[in-house]
Design a protein that fits this description.
The complex is a heterodimer.
Chain A: H1 2-5, H2 11-20, E1 26-32, E2 35-41, E3 52-56, E4 62-66, E5 70-78, E6 98-103, E7 110-112, E8 119-121, H3 125-131, E9 140-145, H4 156-172, E10 176-180, H5 186-196, E11 197-198, E12 204-207, H6 220-233, E13 239-244, E14 252-256, E15 260-262, E16 271-273, E17 280-283, E18 286-289, E19 304-305, E20 313-317, H7 324-332, E21 337-342, H8 353-361, E22 365-370, H9 383-390, E23 393-395, H10 401-414, H11 418-426, H12 450-458
Parallel strand pairs in A: 6-9, 6-10, 10-12, 12-13, 20-21, 21-22, 22-23
Antiparallel strand pairs in A: 1-2, 1-5, 2-3, 3-4, 7-8, 11-19, 13-14, 14-17, 15-16, 17-18
Helix pairs in contact in A: 4-5, 5-10, 7-8, 10-11
Chain B: H1 7-17, H2 28-34, E1 37-45, E2 69-73, H3 87-95, E3 98-103, H4 123-135, E4 139-140, E5 143-144, E6 146-150, E7 160-173, E8 178-188, E9 192-197, E10 200-204, E11 211-217, H5 224-240, E12 251-258, E13 265-270, H6 276-300, E14 310-313, H7 325-332, E15 335-341, E16 351-353, E17 356-357, H8 358-368, E18 377-379, H9 389-399, E19 406-412, H10 414-433, E20 438-442, E21 448-453, E22 460-462, E23 469-470, H11 473-480, H12 487-496, H13 504-509, H14 513-523, H15 527-544, H16 554-565, H17 572-582, H18 588-594, H19 602-607, H20 609-619, H21 627-640, H22 646-656
Parallel strand pairs in B: 3-10, 13-20
Antiparallel strand pairs in B: 1-11, 1-12, 2-3, 4-7, 5-23, 6-7, 6-22, 7-8, 8-11, 9-10, 12-13, 14-15, 15-19, 16-17, 18-19, 20-21
Helix pairs in contact in B: 5-6, 8-10, 14-16, 15-17, 16-17, 20-21, 21-22
The chains are: A alpha/beta, B alpha+beta.
Chain lengths: 461, 657
């Protein structure tokens, strides 16, 4: 019980609380060499030091007191906070589509966690309805938490579990699936699900938020509404990421799961389709398609679940003066697949050639992608490229490096026959490689240019 | 069915009944009778190079129409740390505002628009805030915790203000009493509003994120003048450290007022301390009036729960009002809804503020909460009715009111009518309880209008993006070393130097005390002269002229020294100042040339007196004791300035006579 009444305190601070017999959530008067303070003692975040006691003063602010200045403490009462998102039963509305929200532990709905001082997700339909009541007019929502991990901790096992869970839901007859997910590796999961869940008759929409829902300006609520609209009402039956189009609260984009990437560490509009246009825009009123062709929603339930993954696959991000031992060590450690993110059209320096040769000989599948992200690998243009191909490196067209990594893991999970792997890698499942790049697939405007400035003055960023 | 109530008479009668008197007529007894109580939250921007949580420049401003890009946000209420929703948050959510931010790339980065987490807190601002806390005798915290204070009006794109307590429990001395301080916090400033029309509110982000301190007093001021005195004291104290910004918008205060039996109401963003006395006076009486309304209603409805308004949609084409109320409604496709307020007869025209009645409370909330632009309603107790008696009779036929009921007609877009009806019902029910907790916006005439529901402590939330900052003893001690004298001590010293009191405000406002002290000590000058020179002459010149370059008050030190070195009489400073002020870079010698100063000896000046006397005798038109003396003085003043003391000249003229 000690843990509970002195939640998060350790060392000197814990000693002081014990000495004066003051509990967390106790209201107390504390005498210090800097004067007297009163308020409610709050839990301390685990990663913070052991030299301070945190309290909420009557005006609602939090302050910390240095334990070396404390000369006396007296508990005068006790008042524990009950932090709970109001739970209301999610209403069922006849005629609205059935949407399943699968939780993986993102920041869609969250509350404060005193252990870390950060936010932890809240999730039940009741909590979601309490936080985003508008959802009830979009769909009939049910939820299931498959697991709870931060985005950066997602691993192949999670992809497989998700794919299987999705398969079950589709067979059970849902009209659409929304997956709540942290944003850091959202695009890896989107690629993995594209390969593992094929021929889906319903939309599978991955969604996250860049600002946690404990903030008034969070993008979580609007993203969730957009995702539920796309899943319940949209006609695009593909694996997609649904996140803000502009940073303004205006519309969302639906990005194809294989052509999308997180491009900014903190912007709301961080996800961008690379080398193509997004599939559609979405508002609460519905979808507006951008791409003319896509997989349409169907009434059948014929989905194919392919939950395979070989974990011994790596991405090597090339840099000048890379040494061959980088490649050698991967081979020594039993890696079966390497995706290189090369420079320019798909190049690495001569120094690593021998290592590549050794890797190829050892039966490692090696694929070349470009760290420019936009554009194709073209290994015939320079000698370097030709040499590399001769040594066994296979160009992966315009597949994004992260997508190539996921696909290679998925392919090697199914077979160790390198020819078969090559066939799988170079046969697109859903546009991870495309026959060409549209002229408007690469648009990065630069600020300061007169016409660009005019544009962003008129169009909400 | 006709209404037998004269609104004008009722207004005057209710004003008399609550005992409203003007501020001029009020004494401490007046305020004791209604239980005047007031506290302050004084905001002062800190003089730093950069903003508080990002590296954008502080103090660079843009014009309302000057922007590079716009970003749109909507705000949603979230739970507080203690698991409650805040009342203001829910009100703002009801208003369904679309918030537009106008960005200028020079003053705004991705932090201001909440597209990147905060950078570490600006240390320059932190040390400024601690220094001022020390001068305010506050207990400094051991660790600074950054807290989010929710603001759903959109004035901050994150939906909350990052703020942190630096010290608690201090005090300031006024002339006759001490006022205790609750706390001092360091916070980021908010956006400046460009416009707020219908469902769109526009802000610019230049001021957003600038560091400021908020000093909060206990509600211990018991009359309007005391509130002003406390406000000035806090501002002067900040200025005495030289660490706060001055100028338009750099300081604003929120003034909390209540009367006996009333509620804390916050008058927001008062830019001038001169406005405070009228604002607090009128607000205290507004609350007193609302309590009178409560008592009337309680008599009429012993159980407030039984009160219920009714409404009916009006046929626009059946009415034709004055001032285009119905005509414009037709043109805009608005709806007219008539509402019956049982038992509100005589309440709508009940006095609340000079020139305002209870009906204004409804009008103001309709604008803010239902977002319906004015004129958003008319009612049965208008001093200048928009509808004829016959029209009101038609309305009453539909509403079937009782003898003591009042009626109003709401005009607005169909989609806002539901919120409008809720808003009216909500405010009327609040009248049964007395004074609703509100924040109110101030006007120069001392009146206020509804701005928002008053937020409570439920809008606080720890900032999960920032780590706490420990404040070690050594650091605080080092900051405490260069503390200025207390303002009250300086006040007493100015008095002992015989500087007139009407100079004090100017001297403290501009933080000129240290400079005056230096001039007196180093140049050995008459303190009263120096004080008056700043408090009267410099003050006047500033109001008359515009400097062509930045004018630093230290130039006056140099000016006095120059006059001393040239062996001129100090009176020349008054003549030189307008030019020195306008052209701070001009050399003093050139200033003398420009004002056509000529060195003349004392003897030469004095020798002219007899000649002037004779001349006057020839041209003199009026008799009188001082005529001759004044005329001679006037003739010689110009020549004498700088060459001899005017006082001496004055004496010499008298003596020779």
């Amino acid at each position: 019980m000690t843990d509970d009444i002195f939640q998060g305190y350790k060392g000197a601070a814990l000693e002081v609380l014990k000495k004066y017999n003051v509990r967390v959530w106790g209201t107390a008067v504390i005498k210090t060499t800097r004067g007297e303070f009163s308020g409610t003692v709050l839990p301390r975040s685990e990663n913070d030091d052991d030299k301070h006691i945190v309290m909420k003063i009557p005006t609602g602010y939090n302050i910390g007191l240095d334990v070396v200045t404390i000369t006396g403490m007296k508990e005068t009462g006790y008042k524990k906070a009950n932090y709970k998102i109001p739970e209301k039963e999610f209403p069922y509305t006849e005629g609205l589509p059935r949407v399943k929200l699968i939780g993986t532990g993102g920041t869609i709905a969250s509350r404060l966690d005193y252990r870390t001082g950060a936010v932890i997700p809240a999730f039940s339909p009741g909590e979601l309805y309490g936080a985003v009541p508008e959802l009830a007019s979009i769909c009939n929502l049910t939820t299931e938490k498959v697991f709870a991990v931060f985005s950066e901790n997602m691993a192949p096992d999670h992809y497989k579990k998700l794919a299987i869970a999705i398969g079950k839901e589709i067979e059970a007859g849902v009209d659409g699936i929304v997956i709540g997910h942290g944003t850091d590796t959202l695009h890896h999961t989107a690629a993995a699900l594209t390969f593992m869940v094929q021929n889906s008759p319903v939309p599978i929409v991955l969604v996250g938020s860049q600002r946690s829902s404990d903030r008034p300006s969070s993008d979580a609520a609007l993203n969730l509404m957009h995702a539920c609209t796309a899943a319940g009402h949209g006609d695009i039956a593909e694996v997609m990421i649904c996140m803000f189009g502009p940073t303004s609260d205006e519309y969302g984009f639906l990005h194809k799961g294989t052509r999308v990437r997180k491009m900014h560490s903190s912007y709301r509009s961080t996800f961008r389709t690379i080398g193509d246009t997004p599939l559609a825009t979405v508002t609460r009123k519905g979808l507006k398609t951008i791409k003319e062709t896509y997989h349409h929603r169907r009434q059948d339930r014929n989905v194919t679940i392919l939950p395979y993954f070989e974990e011994k696959v790596s991405i090597v991000y090339y840099y000048p003066n890379m040494q061959p031992d980088i490649i050698d060590s991967l081979v020594e450690h039993g890696y079966k697949g390497i995706v290189i993110a090369g420079t320019g059209l798909g190049h690495v320096n001569k120094a690593v050639y021998p290592a590549i040769e050794r890797a190829a000989k050892a039966g490692v599948a090696i694929y070349m992608t470009v760290q420019t992200l936009w554009g194709y690998v073209h290994m015939f243009v320079y000698d370097t490229g030709r040499d590399l191909m001769a040594k066994g490196v296979i160009p992966a067209e315009n597949m994004l490096p992260e997508v190539a990594y996921i696909k290679l893991g998925w392919a090697l999970g199914q077979t160790s026959d390198l020819e078969e792997v090559r066939r799988i890698m170079l046969t697109p499942v859903n546009d991870e490689t495309t026959p060409g790049e549209p002229y408007n697939g690469y648009l990065i405007y630069q600020g300061g240019v007169t016409e660009v400035e005019e544009f962003i003055r008129k169009v909400h960023k | 069915m006709a209404q037998n109530l004269d609104p004008k008479l009722n207004y005057e009668e209710t004003k008399r009944r609550i005992g409203y008197v003007t501020r001029g007529e009020s004494t401490q007894e007046t305020y004791d009778r209604i239980g005047f109580m007031s506290g302050l939250e004084v905001h002062q921007q800190l003089k730093t190079v950069q903003k508080l949580f990002c590296r954008c420049p502080a103090g660079v401003y843009q014009k309302p129409g000057d922007f590079d890009a716009e970003v749109i946000r909507h705000m949603r209420p979230t739970l507080s740390e203690l698991g409650e929703y805040d009342g203001t948050a829910l009100m703002e959510f009801k208003t369904r505002k679309e918030i537009v931010y106008r960005l200028k790339s020079k003053t705004t980065c991705t932090y201001e628009v909440d597209d990147t987490p905060p950078f570490p807190l600006n240390r320059e601002a932190l040390s400024h805030a601690i220094e001022i806390s020390l001068v305010s005798k506050l207990n400094i915290v051991g660790e600074v915790h950054i807290t989010r204070k929710q603001y759903l009006d959109g004035s901050i794109p994150t939906g909350f203000q990052r703020t942190a307590i630096i010290g608690v429990e201090g005090e300031i001395p006024l002339k006759n009493k001490k006022i205790r301080l609750i706390q001092l916090s360091l916070e980021e400033d908010s956006c400046r509003e460009v416009s707020d029309i219908g469902h769109t509110r526009i802000y610019r982000t230049d001021r957003l994120g600038m560091p400021l301190i908020e000093t909060v007093t206990y509600p211990e001021m018991t009359n309007p003048d005391e509130v002003k005195e406390a406000c000035n004291y806090i501002r002067f104290l900040g200025r005495s450290t030289g660490k706060v910004r001055t100028g338009i918008g750099a300081g604003r205060q929120d003034v909390n007022v209540s009367c006996k039996g009333g509620t804390r109401v916050e008058i927001k963003g008062v830019a001038h301390s001169n406005w405070i006395p009228d604002l607090t006076h009128i607000e205290c009486f507004r609350q007193w009036a609302l309590l009178s309304i409560r008592d009337i209603l309680k008599l009429r409805f012993p159980d407030a729960k039984s009160w219920k308004q009714s409404h009916v949609l009006l046929d626009l084409h059946a009415f034709n009002s004055k001032n285009g109320f119905t005509k414009d409604a037709k043109a805009s496709g608005y709806k007219l809804v008539a509402v019956n307020l049982p038992g509100f007869k005589g309440i709508l025209s009940h006095f609340t503020q000079p020139g305002k009645m209870f009906a204004n409370e409804l009008i103001e909330r309709l604008k803010v909460i239902a977002c319906i632009e004015l004129p958003n309603m008319t009612h049965s107790e208008e001093l200048d009715p928009l509808f004829t008696t016959a029209d009101w009779d038609k309305v009453r036929l539909l509403l079937k009111p009782g003898e003591n009921d009042a009626q109003l007609i709401i005009r607005g877009p169909e989609e806002d009518i539901k919120t409008a009806l809720e808003t009216v019902a909500e405010r009327c029910l609040m009248a049964f309880a007395g004074v609703p907790p509100e924040t109110r916006k101030s006007f120069a005439d001392g009146t206020t209008i509804f701005e928002r529901v008053l937020p409570g402590a439920d809008r606080m939330y720890p900032d999960t993006d920032s780590a706490p900052i420990p404040l070690e003893n050594d650091y605080i001690e080092s900051l405490g070393k260069n503390q200025p004298e207390e303002v009250i001590v300086r006040y007493q010293r100015l008095k002992s130097w015989n500087i007139p009191e009407d100079c004090f405000t100017y001297i403290f406002r501009k933080n000129l005390f240290p400079l005056i002290e230096r001039i007196i000590a180093e140049l050995d000058m008459n303190p009263a002269f120096v004080g008056k020179f700043f408090g009267h002459t410099v003050n006047w010149v500033e109001g008359q002229y515009k400097p062509t370059a930045e004018f630093d008050y230290k130039i006056i030190y140099a000016l006095f020294r120059f006059i001393r070195q040239k062996n001129l009489d100090i009176s020349i400073a008054r003549r030189m100042l307008p030019l020195v002020y306008q052209y701070p870079k001009m050399e003093f010698e050139s200033v003398l040339t420009s004002i056509s100063f000529k060195p003349v000896s004392r003897e030469q000046i004095v020798s002219k007196i007899p000649f002037l006397r004779d001349k006057l005798a020839e041209i003199r038109l009026s008799e009188g004791e001082h005529v001759e003396h004044n005329w001679v003085m006037g003739q010689l003043r110009r020549q004498a300035e700088g060459n001899m003391s005017l006082k001496e000249l004055h004496e010499v003229i008298g003596a020779i006579g």
